[in-house]
Amino acid sequence: MTTLANYEVQVTDLLHDPNNQTWTLVQIDRYINEARRQLVADTGCLRTLQSSYLTVAQESYTYGQVCGAAISGTMSGYLTGDTVAFSGGGGTGVAATLTVASGAVTAITFTNFGSGYTSAPTATITTAGGTGAVITVGILSSDTLDVIRSSITWGSTKATMKWAVFTQFSAIYRQQVGMQGRPFVWSDYSSNMVYVAPIPDQTYPIEWDTVVSPVDLTGTTADPIINIYQSPIKYYAAHLAKYFDQSYGESAVFKKLYDDSVLRTLGQVMTSRIPDVYMGLP
User: Fold this and answer.
1) How far is residue 147's CA from residue 133's CA, in Å, rounded to a whole number?
2) N or C: which end of the chain has fewer CB within 10 A?
3) Taking the C-alpha atoms of 141, 147, 149 and 155 in order, what is their torsion angle to the nearest 10 degrees?
């Protein structure tokens, strides 16, 4: 288990400053966390499966926004005019209205998908006497750096969606404006948005396979970056320390050590796989 204190020892040893005479621990911690973010951006080593939902008639999904929600539960007593509010998740701005029929919440319609969410907010219904409704919210975290793969659930089937570059995606799959159906292809647009096609005709559960930026380490929290990837971090942190100290020559040396360590680490983890040992046999 690697904690912030472990990294502090590694970096201050490299800088020959174990007693923090030149750099404070606050500075060292800042450099360490910046180095962790850089490492994940360079290697994609921190992957997370994000479970979410696609919303009816919503074609694009931006990192940090709510993507959709599902309604479940044995419900009774809900009335037209009942409202829903959202809390938590680290973001702001999400808003929605409810559709009620025969005492049950039958649909949720987002009027604003919000921004800045790192986890799914909690949905709470304000009602005079309704009971049983559970609204589960899905997001695509603002910490997302890249979406690698997506799988949509349709009934009992989880189907991996096809990916296309946006130019091809737009030319082939967006020709018929407003066409809705079960999405089977996706594309990334800009650096923080994905599109799906066809446009969803209902709420679909979706799983995003993503690279996410690490949360800053504090206290005794264990680093989620696995051990085999951690070696380059100390070099990049030392590079930053020397750079901001205007010791540019030494900074360049540590940056070179970081680059070499990243390549060496990738060489260790990028092993070959045999997809099917029986492939081609009669």
Assistant:
1) 31
2) C
3) 30
